[in-house]
Amino acid sequence: MGGIGILRLSGTRALAIGEAISNSKLKPGVIQFRQFFDADGVVLDHGLCLYFVAPHSFSGEDCVEIQAHGGPIVLDMLLERLCELGARLAHAGEFSERAFLNGKLDLTQAEAIADLITSGSRAATRAAMRSLEGRFSRQVHALVEEIINLRAYIEAALDFAEEEIDFLNNSDISRRLEECSRHLQQLLEQAEHGRTLQEGLSVTLAGLPNAGKSSLLNYLAGYEAAIVTEIEGTTRDVLREHISLKGIPLKITDTAGLRESENPVEREGVRRAWETIAQADVIIYLVDSSKGLTPADQKIIDELAGDNLQLVYSKTDLLDADLPREPDALYISALDGSGMEQLIARITGQAADFNQDSQVFMARRRHVDALLRARNCIQRAGQTFNTACSGELMAEDLREAQQCLNEITGEFGSEDLLGRIFSTFCIGK
Ligand SMILES: Nc1nc2c(ncn2[C@@H]2O[C@H](COP(=O)(O)OP(=O)(O)O)[C@@H](O)[C@H]2O)c(=O)[nH]1
Ligand SMILES: [Mg+2]
Q1: Which ligand minimizes its atom distance to the CA of 230?
Q2: pLDDT tens, 268-311?
Q3: Mutational test site, ligand 1, from 205, 216, 228, max ligand atoms within 8 Å of CB
Q4: 208, 210, 213, 215, best to mutate for ligand 1 pocket (most atoms within 8 Å of CB)
Q5: C-beta 228 within 6 A of ligand 1
Q6: Within the chain, what is the greatest distance between any pair of CA atoms?
Q7: Is 210 in the pocket of ligand 1 (CB under 6 A)?
Q8: Helices 391-409 and 135-159 sit at what angle, rounded to 10 degrees?
Q9: N or C: which end of the chain has fewer CB within 10 A?
Q10: What share of the chain is helix, strand, coil (3-state, %, to 5)?
Q11: What 3-state DSSP class applies to 132?
C-alpha cells in the first residue's frame, strides 16, 4: 500500500493497450492526466500516464507508464484489465533483460541496477551507481581492445608463415602481453573490492574451544547472538551475523572450536568450521591469552597461514598489562572492550576505505571469476610465447581471454548465463 502505484507496459502493443485502458490518445513525452476504465466503461481509478517512444525508453521498446493509486486491490484490478487488453505479466528481471537485449544496457549495468536497489550501505550504493554509469564496462572494453590489437598483430604474423619466427621474436609482443596482464590484474583487484561491497567481506572466527570466539561475535554484533559458556565445545553450528563496520558490510561467522572429538555432533561442527574457514576473506584466529599459544594452536596456525590470517589474543583482561606482546598480533578483551578498535581497523583495512575510494565499482563473483580466467589465459599465452614460440597457440589463448572478458559485459555468453542472472531480479525490474 502506498500513495502511488506504478504499472509499466513494454512492447509493441504498449501504446495500444495504454490508449485502450485510458480511452484516449497518448502523446509521447508528455505527462497526461487520465481516467482508467474497466471493460464496461466504469472508472477504476485515475492518475498519470506517460508514453515513451522506442527506443527512448528504459527497455528500448515502446513503454507506457500508468501512475495510479497504490492500493493493492486497485492495482490488481488495473492489472487484470491490462491483461484483458492483451498484456501479460513480466517475468522476473524481464524489463532489464529486454533493455539488455535491445542494447540499452550491458550485463554489468543490468546487474548494477539490482545491486543498487538491494545495496546495504552507502558505499555499496555509490559503487553500484558507478557500475550503472558504465565505469566497469569501459575498463573491460579497454582491455578487450588491447587483446584484439595483440591478436591482430599475431594473426598477421601467422599469415606470413615463413616470417613467423622473426615476427614473434619481436620483444614488442612480450611487452604488450605484460602490459595487458598488468591492466588485467588492476581490474581484478578493483573487482574484488566491488565484490566485497556487494556480498560483504566474510570474516571467520576460528580457534580452539573456549578461545572466546562466540564472545567476540556477540561483542561485534552488539547482542547475544551466540551462546557463551565456560564449557568447551559449546558452539557447534556455524553462526552468521551481518553487520556493518565503518560503512563496510561484513558477514561474521562464529565456528566450533577446532579439536578432535568423539562426539559426532561436535565432529560435524568442526568439519563445518573448516569448510567456512576455507571460504573466508579474513580469518581471525583467537588464542586465549591466559593459556598462551599452545602447540595445538601452532599446528592450526601453520595450516591456516596466509595473508588473510590475523592472530588475535583474547581475554587480555586476565593478563598482566606489561607482558611482552607480539608485534603482528592483536590483543582484545570481549569483557572490557579493549583492543576492539584496533581489531576493527585491521578488519576494515583489509577491505580498504571504500567510503573514500571513488574508484570502486560494483562487481559480482561472476565478474571476478571471469577476470581470473582471463588472467590465466594471458599468463598461458605468455608461457606459450616464451617456451614454444607458437603464434597459433598464443592466438588461441588470447581469443579465450577475450571471450572471458566479453562474458562480463554479456557480449559473449549463453542463454543459460542470461537466464541465471535475470531470474534473480524481481518482477518489474
Ligand atoms: N575474562 C574474560 N573471559 C572471557 C572473554 N571472552 C570469553 N571469555 C570466557 O571464556 C569462556 C569461553 O568463551 P566463548 O566465547 O564461549 O569461547 P568459544 O568457545 O571460543 O566460543 C566463557 O566462559 C567466556 O565467559 C574475555 O574477554 N575475558
Ligand atoms: Mg563458541
Answers
A1: 1
A2: 999 999 999 998 989 999 999 999 999 999 999 999 988 889 99
A3: 228
A4: 215
A5: yes
A6: 87
A7: yes
A8: 160
A9: N
A10: 50, 15, 35
A11: helix
Q: State phi, psi for 205 to the nearest 5 degrees.
A: -95, 125
Ligand 1 pocket mutation pick from 208, 210, 317 by most atoms within 8 angstroms of CB: 210
Under CATH, which architecture does the 2-89 domain have? Answer: 2-Layer Sandwich (3.30)
* Residue that has been written with the C-alpha cell 561442527 in this structure: 269
Ligand 1 contact via 213 beta carbon (within 6 Å): yes
pLDDT: which is higher, 150 or 42: 42
| Ligand 1 neighbour 314 (Cβ under 6 A) | yes
Q: Which CATH architecture has domain 201-350?
A: 3-Layer(aba) Sandwich (3.40)
The answer to whether the predicted template modeling score (pTM) of the entire model surpasses 0.70 is no
| Per-domain residue ranges of the chain | 2-89, 122-197+361-423, 201-350
Is the domain covering 122-197+361-423 a CATH 3.40.50.720 domain?
no
How many angstroms is it from 344 CA to the middle of ligand 2?
A: 20
Q: In whole numbers, what is the pLDDT of the chain averaged over residues?
A: 88
**Closest by alpha carbon to 378, among 178, 238, 87?**
178
Percent of residues, the chain, with pLDDT higher than 90: 59
| pLDDT of 163 above 60 | no
Q: Which residues pair with 311 in a beta bridge?
A: 285
- Nearest CA, atom 19, ligand 1: 210
Please write down the long-range contacts of 234-241, taking CB distance under 8 Å and 24 or more positions apart.
234/209, 235/269, 236/265, 236/266, 236/268, 236/269, 237/269, 237/272, 238/269, 238/272, 238/273, 238/276, 239/214, 241/217
Nearest ligand to the C-alpha of residue 236?
2
Q: How many Cα atoms sit within 13 Å of 270 on the Cβ side?
A: 17
